[in-house]
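Pilot study result, target chain (139 residues):
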Amino acid sequence: MKEIIIKDLEQIGFVAKKFLEYVDENRVFAFEGSMGAGKTTFIKAICEELEVEDDVCSPTFAILNVYYSERNGEVFHFDFYRLVSEEQALDIGVEENFYSGSWCFIEWAENVTNLLPPNCIKVKIEQIEDNQRKVTIYL
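Predicted structure:
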């Protein structure tokens, strides 16, 4: 387990870079945190470190956004907040994405717990004092 504190938004790029160093070869991440904790903001910072060329935004209504990086290929960003059932996730082909070897960032992963691959890394983001965030990576 690794913990990183994000003191302010100016520091988020540095923390995203550290995150990528910690996770090594892992590519599938389940982000946990309350609404407004900063999951999408942190994923956006990670995508910037991965040199994603697209605008990174929450896929709340689309469920899945696919981004592209010249260096890293496709990057999948899921938001299962509005998911009705795990079958709905299967219908959009999540298993293929999860096992593709591509980067996968999953918000509200608790709605697809049974579909997550065994190598999925849990990442918890919590708001702490003075509007700081604590990122806990369960390696």
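One observation from the pilot: Strands lie at 2-6, 28-32, 64-69, 73-79, 103-107, 121-127, 133-138. A full batch analysis is planned for the follow-on phase.
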